[in-house]
């Protein structure tokens, strides 16, 4: 699938970014999108002893096509140096697991495979774990995660309390069905509460330039995870904003994305490199295969943003609505 440029992105927007960056940085940014400059770098995952490619392969990339197409997408990622794969049973109502399992089977022994469960109770988590293992054609997951923790009481406390999903997680680790335990979260409060338990090896969290410049959405969770020596993995690196209210999924150019992604290549490159500069091990880009190929190229450029690039990213974020309500910029108090 080709990489779409936003229909409403005019020459003025591109010219504005070029002006902010200057000729050298503008040229380098566009070159990074056009072709890979080398193999994907790898970084350590917290205290696990694992080394992961800085870009992960989300199971959604395998969706929306034939099994042969899924096989080819996985093979391409492997050839480019990707060794981190992440999936969940909720992606495409199971389609992601059903497509990714057979596609990944020939490479299972040389990749780090992560999966998730959205269940908060012991029985539900156990049922999902067993089904995911069957679909993914494996006897274990390298990382098993609690999916999308958002509310402290309804998600974190329930999952970690008596009869909660954590009982399944711990039992599965004892049986060798999972190696490391993690969670993904969509709120600062849930992330901090989950880490307070001391039971997790990794955190998967939105590390997005818009959310950062609006409210430092990722700062506290990433700092706490670093303090604990946890592996830090990033979501939503190439998210721009919410889709326009009332827009139909069928009419969107990126139907696999529940948010509007950055569809200008240079902007996407700037955003992804910003995320990779925040001390994370790896980022999971959008599930669209065209966007994924752009991310593969950009991720080979392993250098932090320069000052001009940081200022450009901040300017791009100004005025955009964050994809998470909690990341809305708080109004300054009147007076002092």
Describe what this molecule looks like in 3D:
The radius of gyration is 19 Å and the shape is globular. α5 (122-135) crosses α7 and α6 (152-160) runs parallel beside α8 (188-196). The protein starts with 10 loop residues before the first helix and ends in a 19-residue tail after the last helix. The protein has helices spanning 11-21, 23-34, 67-79, 95-104, 122-135, 152-160, 165-175, 188-196, 209-215, 219-227, 265-276, 289-298, 307-317, and strands spanning 42-44, 51-53, 57-58, 84-86, 112-117, 141-149, 178-185, 202-206, 231-235, 239-241, 260-261, 282-283. By secondary structure, the chain is α/β, with parallel strands linked by helices. Helices cover 41% and strands 15% of the residues. Residues 1-12 and 331-336 have low confidence and may be disordered. The strands form 3 sheets. The protein has an 8-stranded parallel beta sheet. It has one domain (11-324): NADP-dependent oxidoreductase domain (TIM Barrel), CATH 3.20.20. The longest helix is centred in the middle third of the chain and has 14 residues, at 122-135. It contains 13 helices and 12 strands.
């Amino acid at each position: 699938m080709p990489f779409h440029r936003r229909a409403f992105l005019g020459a003025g927007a591109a010219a504005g970014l070029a002006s902010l960056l200057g000729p050298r940085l503008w040229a380098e940014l566009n070159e990074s999108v056009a072709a890979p400059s080398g193999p994907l770098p790898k970084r350590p995952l917290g205290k696990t002893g694992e080394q992961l490619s800085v870009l992960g392969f989300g199971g959604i990339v395998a969706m929306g096509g034939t099994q042969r197409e899924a096989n080819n997408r996985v093979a391409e990622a492997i050839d480019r140096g990707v060794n981190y794969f992440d999936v969940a049973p909720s992606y495409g109502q199971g389609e992601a697991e059903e497509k990714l399992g057979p596609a990944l089977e020939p490479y299972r022994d040389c990749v780090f495979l992560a999966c998730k469960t959205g269940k908060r109770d012991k029985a539900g988590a156990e049922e999902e774990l067993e089904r995911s293992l069957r679909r993914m054609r494996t006897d274990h997951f390298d990382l098993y995660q609690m999916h999308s923790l958002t509310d402290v009481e309804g998600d974190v406390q329930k999952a970690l309390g008596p009869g909660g999903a954590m009982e399944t997680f711990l039992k599965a680790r004892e049986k060798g069905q999972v190696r490391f335990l993690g969670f993904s979260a969509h709120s600062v409060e849930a992330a901090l509460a989950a880490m307070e338990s001391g039971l997790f090896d990794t955190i998967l969290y939105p590390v997005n330039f818009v959310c950062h410049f609006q409210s430092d959405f990722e700062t506290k969770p990433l700092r706490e995870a670093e303090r604990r020596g946890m592996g830090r993995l990033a979501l939503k690196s190439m998210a721009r904003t919410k889709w326009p209210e009332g827009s139909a999924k069928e009419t969107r150019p990126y139907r696999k994305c529940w948010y509007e992604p950055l569809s200008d290549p240079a902007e996407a490159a700037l955003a992804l490199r910003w995320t990779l500069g925040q001390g994370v091990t790896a980022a999971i880009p959008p599930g669209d295969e065209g966007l994924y190929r752009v991310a593969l190229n950009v991720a080979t450029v392993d250098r932090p943003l320069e000052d001009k690039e940081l200022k450009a990213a901040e300017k791009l974020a100004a005025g955009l609505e964050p994809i998470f309500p909690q990341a809305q910029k708080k109004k300054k108090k009147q007076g002092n």
